[in-house]
Every structure is written in structure tokens, then in C-alpha cells.
Amino acid sequence: MHPLHVLLENVPEDFAVMIRNPDDGYYYFRAGILCSSLGWSVASKLGMQLKEIHSPIPDYKEKMEFSMDRYFSKLPTARPIQRGSWGLEVDTPLFMPPGDPHEKYREAQFPETELPLSRIHLRVDWQTLRRLPLSGAIIFNFKALFTPVEDFRFEPHIPHLLHTILLHGKPNIMAYKNTWHVEHVVLPAIELWKKEQEDKGMVPKDWEVGTLAEAPFFPGWEGYWRGRQGF
Predict the structure, then answer these.
(1) Neighbours of 108 (CB within 10 A)
(2) What distance in Å separates the CA atoms of residue 111 and residue 83, rounded to the nearest whole number?
């Protein structure tokens, strides 16, 4: 069985294989199993150089292109890295290639009669980069997880953080994330939850919004999680 088919049948995550071209020294997308990408697919990116894949990302060329090429060339086999990439989505779209009908929700602000808060979710793609020891290929791996935005009401500090990002995030980054299509529903709710958490003492009223000590977890997350799991 082909190695990519083994991954497809046994690991519920996505994989993209980046291989160095010895002629120019740059890494190219050469193979992959992608079942949960948003706005792209294997067909739309296959054969592209690293900088071409990331060309839609704001500031990538100016601030990240050189450092990412250098990072790929120096990544040790024994030191994989993990990061999260987030967005706000209507429902839980797992795979949305270019032209997918679900893209219509990103093109307009639907009225709350059609778009209640219960339909809006935080999507986080937990991503890793690691080098294979024999081929030297870089494996980009990710798994998408969804959290209903309504859960944030019970998670200390999270409404404050999201409120600050939506209102004061760098404009070109926020335009790329395209949270605009749900902000008219999300912002009023998290403004209410901010005050509610402060009134209940869950968050100090003078708290200066910033990265949490246990990031990406909020204070008391383990007890909250265990309660949700029933043990």
C-alpha cells in the first residue's frame, strides 16, 4: 500500500510533503493527503514553492519569506514544532476547496434569523512541522478542531481576548482571516459575556488583556473540561 494511503486510512489528520529542489535549494509541495483544508486543495497548490503557497498571507513576503526558507533548510529531525491557526466559521466546514458552495457564508453578513450565534464556531488548525530522517522532506501536518463560540461564555478571559482581537487586530491580517462575515453576531455576545465574567469575579475588572499564563489554555480549563466529559 502507498504510504500516503496508509496515512489516509489510519490517521485522522492531513499531511503535505515539502521536498527540497537541489537545483535552487528551495522547498516545493510534492505530495499530500488533504481532507480538511479551507480555500485550497492538493490540486490548487501541488508543485508550488513555499513562498508561492503563502503568497496570499499578508506581510509574508516582507517579513517571513526569507526566514521561513532558512528555517526549512535548518529544521532538525528531532525538533518538530507546533502552532495553531484560527478563524471563525459558520457551522463546521471541514473541507472547503476553492469554489465550494459553503463559501457563500464568507461573502456577506447574513441576518441573525439565518445566522444565529449557535451556528458560529472557532476553528483551530493545530499544525506541526517535522523533518523526515532519510529523505530530509518537511512534513506539514494539521488537524482541525471546532469549538462553539457560545462556549466562550463560560471560559474566563476568552471573550476579552476575542473582543480585543476582532476590534484591534492588524487590519490586513483580519481581512485575510475574514472574520467580518460573523462579527455582527459575535461582537454583541462577547461584549455581554465580558461584563458578565467581570461581574461574577471570573475576570478582574482591571485586567489588562494579554497572553494568558497557561496559553493556549484559560484559568480553570482542566476542571471545566473534566466537567464537560463527565468525570
Answers:
(1) 10
(2) 34
